[in-house]
Structure formats: C-alpha cells, structure tokens
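Design job #97: recover the sequence.
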C-alpha cells in the first residue's frame, strides 16, 4: 500500500487565511486580467507608456499589482506584511528590488540599503534571511570582463576591488548579526565571478554554520557538477555550504544569446531535464546535510513535496534548521502556508522599493502569469477555489 502523502497543497483555506475577502477579490481581479495575453500586453504596454509620459498612474499601480506582489515602498513600510506573514509562521526576506541603478553611487546606495535589511532582520524571527544581487553592487559589463579574463584597466581593477569590499561588508554584517544572506544567481556570462565572490565569502563566514548561501540554477546543464564541486571545496576547506536551489529565471535570454553567438546552450534541452536535476540537487543536499544547508526556492509543488519526503526519509524534523522552503510574495501561498502550518521552515521573498523602480519586477510577474495556452494559471484557479469556498460557508 502506498504511504499517505505527508503534506497537501490543496488547502486554500490555509493558503489564503492571511488574506481578507477584499484582498482576495483584488487578487482574483489582477490574475484574471493578466491571464489574458492581449489584455496583459495592453495593460503592461499602457503602464510603461504612462510612466514614460509621467502620467499619474503610480497610485493605481500601488493599490493593485504593487500591493499584491510587494511589501511596501521602504523597509519600514513592510512592517505590516512582515508581521502578518510571521503570524502564520512564514518568514520575510526583504528584497530591495530596485533594478538598473548602474553607477558607483547607485551601487553604494544598494549596499547601504542591503545593510539596513540585515540590521532590520537582526534578532527578528520573522526575517530569517537577507538577500542581494551582485549586479546591484557591480556593473554587469565589468563582471563580464572578469569572467572573460580580459586584462582590466586600472580603473576597472579599482572598481572590482570596490565590489569585493561591498560584498565583504554585507557578508561580515550578516555574520555579525547572525542573519544568513542569499546571493542571487544571474546570467551565465557573469555568473563565474558571482560564484567566486560567494565562495570567498563562505570560506570566511561559514565556519560555524551556513551564513552565506550561493544560488544554483538547475536549468543549467553545469549546475549539478558545480554543486558537487562546491560541496567538495567546502569539505576540503572545512566550511559549511549554503545552497539555494532554483530552476533559473533567464532561459529565453540564455538560449537566444547562445544561438546568436554560436555556442552550445548552457540550458537543459527541456523542462523534464531541468526538473530531474532540480530534484537530484535536493537529494544531494539532503544526503550531505552534515555540511550543506539548503533552500528550495520554487513554486513547483512536486519539488516542495519531494523535499518533505527526503527529510522524512532521513528522519529529519520538519523544523530542521538546515532546510528552508521559499516562494515569492503574492505567489504559491498554497505551498508556503501549508508547509508552515506543518512546521517546516518557510520564507517569502518580499520585494520592496519605490513603485517606479520595482516596475521591471512587476512586469516580469505579469508576464509569468499570462496564460499561453488559454488555461487559467494555477494561482487563478486557487484564488477562485478559495472565493467559492468562502461563499459556501457564509
Ligand atoms: C525564493 C525564490 C528565489 C529565486 N531566486 C532566483 C535566483 O537567484 N536566480 C534565478 O535565476 N531565479 C531565481 N528564482 C526564480 C526561479 O529560478 C524560477 O524562474 C521560478 O521559480 C520558476 O521555477 P519553479 O521551480 O518555481 O517552477 P516550475 O514552473 O516548475 O518551473 C519553471 C522553470 O522551469 C525551467 N524551464 C521551463 N521550461 C523549460 C524548458 N523548456 N527547458 C528547460 N527548462 C525549462 C525554467 O527555469 C522555468 O523558470 C527564484 C525563485 C524563488 C521562488
């Protein structure tokens, strides 16, 4: 007889318990809109144009999509969301989502803001992690040159030294505050220096536990090998490996570039191969749990379920502090809240920043939730299921 599944993600009452009827109806409205490709294209096109023409649409955006997918416009503006999620055992990862500030001044500002997120998290059980993107602290062009091993000019070398210092300041603060920090993964053509910087920081700050986490994108054919090597190096140099596993967000861009420049695509040929490696990576981390702490950054129900099975197989407690589940704010609440209710460690990336600056992030979410084959997105089905359930118990 097959064992009963340990956890179910179907309970929408648990999933949306933190959402009022009004908030849920708003979510239904947003996901219904973006579900239609032509409405989604029209809406996102109009928003881009309106912002360009400086039309006063920020209020409208703020009370709709921004409200659903973001915590607020500043750290303190997220307090209410942090507390609400915390009440249900779901942690917040404050994600300063301002993109494209490509100047030394912008990089220094992002550094200061990231340090503020760590200070905010210090001693706060509701904020279990901090996070940053290296391209918030360094020019992508410079990272690409470093990856290509081009000889840097004096100024470029100085700029790269400043990047090192910025990253070290973040990781040192995270270590001193006992707040683990996630290093997001980006495009393959700049990822080598990001990895190198992350491992440099791990060797220094992961002596007692995993404070610095690097990200592995399992849509990359190389990632399983990279994960094994990262584990080997951590063992050889006696530090803990923090591994955030994701499938990867830049598939189209990666394939396009590979085709244009005529090199082999670094991405798996199909979804199945990505899924297989993602789940193998989860198993690898649990097999090596003495040295590895893992975060499963995914909205995939099977992968999240599979990780709970692996933990059970290894007789780990649901609340084992080496295993984390993470989803994005405003998405897959059925996974986050059901896992949290069962005692697993769960956190949400909660993006924040001025409305205009987080627009690229919001447009990506709209794109992701637009139906390609005419069916409703998983989010929309869950929201509708919960609305129907609430009506039936009224
Ligand atoms: C907490 C969190 C943190 C994240 N951090 C990062 C990060 O640092 N860097 C980053 O790049 N992304 C990051 N992401 C995004 C992530 O990489 C995925 O894009 C997103 O989560 C969708 O994958 P999934 O596992 O949730 O779900 P699924 O819907 O099961 O998988 C979709 C993913 O599968 C892969 N895929 C789809 N079709 C194919 C195909 N034909 N061939 C090969 N692969 C395919 C793609 O990666 C696609 O995004 C993060 C996501 C979360 C939830």
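Job complete. Output follows.
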């Amino acid at each position: 007889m097959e064992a009963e599944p340990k956890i179910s993600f179907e309970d929408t009452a648990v999933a949306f318990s933190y959402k009022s009827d009004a908030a849920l109806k708003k979510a239904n409205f947003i996901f219904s809109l973006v579900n239609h490709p032509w409405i989604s294209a029209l809406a996102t096109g109009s928003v881009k144009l309106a912002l360009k023409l400086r039309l006063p649409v920020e209020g409208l955006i703020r009370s709709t999509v921004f409200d659903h997918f973001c915590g607020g416009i500043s750290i303190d503006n997220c307090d209410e969301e942090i507390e609400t999620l915390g009440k249900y055992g779901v942690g917040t990862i404050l994600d300063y989502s301002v993109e494209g500030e490509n100047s030394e001044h912008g990089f220094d500002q992002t550094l200061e803001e990231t340090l503020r997120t760590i200070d905010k998290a210090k001693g706060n059980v509701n904020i279990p992690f901090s996070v940053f993107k290296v391209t918030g602290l360094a020019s992508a062009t410079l990272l690409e040159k470093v990856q290509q091993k081009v000889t840097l000019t004096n100024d470029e070398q100085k700029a790269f030294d400043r990047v090192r210092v910025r990253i070290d300041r973040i990781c040192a603060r995270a270590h001193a505050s006992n707040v683990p920090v996630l290093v997001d993964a980006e495009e393959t053509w700049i990822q080598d220096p990001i990895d190198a910087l992350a491992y440099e920081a791990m060797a220094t700050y992961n002596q007692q536990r995993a404070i610095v986490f690097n990200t592995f994108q399992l849509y990359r054919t190389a990632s399983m090998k990279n994960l094994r090597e990262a584990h080997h190096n951590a063992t050889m140099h006696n530090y803990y490996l923090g591994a955030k596993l994701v499938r990867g967000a830049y598939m189209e861009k990666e394939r396009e570039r590979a085709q244009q420049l005529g090199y082999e695509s670094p991405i798996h040929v199909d979804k199945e191969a990505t899924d297989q490696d993602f789940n193998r990576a989860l198993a690898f981390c649990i097999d090596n749990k003495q040295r590895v702490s893992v975060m499963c950054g995914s909205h995939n129900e099977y992968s999240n379920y599979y990780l709970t099975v692996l933990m059970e197989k290894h007789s780990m407690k649901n609340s084992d502090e080496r295993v984390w589940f993470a989803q994005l704010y405003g998405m897959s609440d059925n996974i986050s809240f059901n896992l949290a209710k069962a005692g697993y460690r769960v956190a949400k990336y909660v993006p924040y920043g001025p409305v205009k600056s987080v627009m690229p992030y919001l447009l990506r979410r709209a794109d992701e939730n637009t139906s390609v084959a005419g069916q409703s997105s998983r989010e929309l089905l869950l929201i509708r299921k919960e609305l129907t359930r609430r009506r039936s118990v009224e």
